[in-house]
Amino acid sequence: MPDDAGNLDNAKLVTVAQRPSEVAASILVAALQDVGIRAIATGGFTAGFRAEAPGMVKVQTFEQDAERARQIIDELKMEGSKAEDDESE
User: 43-64 pLDDT, tens per residue?
Assistant: First the structure.
């Protein structure tokens, strides 16, 4: 979170992940918020449109939280792949 949470005028949002649907992005946003990282999903209105490439929903956090958010996302991916491995046994 920015040092001065009341003054967000100069806060910069960065994309930490992209998901193919608004639902998938919202789940990730909720997971980040559960560990205290403020996050939002953007692009949900255009994700369903198809042109040359499918649209994606961006998950964004404040720049200073981005590294921690990416670590959390990586941990979630690892947990998901472990669960898939356990189910296949």
Answer: 866 555 555 556 789 999 999 9
Within a domain: 41? yes
Decide if 31 is inside a domain: yes
pTM of the model: 0.72
Residue 62 phi, psi (nearest 5): -65, 145
Q: Is residue 36 part of a domain?
A: yes
Tokens 């939002």, located at residue:
40
Distance, in Å, from the CA atom of 59 to the CA atom of 1, rounded to the nearest integer, reads 16
Residues 6+ apart with CB under 8 A from 39: 16, 28, 29, 32, 33, 59, 60, 61, 65, 69
- Identify the CA nearest to 38 among candidates 74, 18, 68, 75: 68
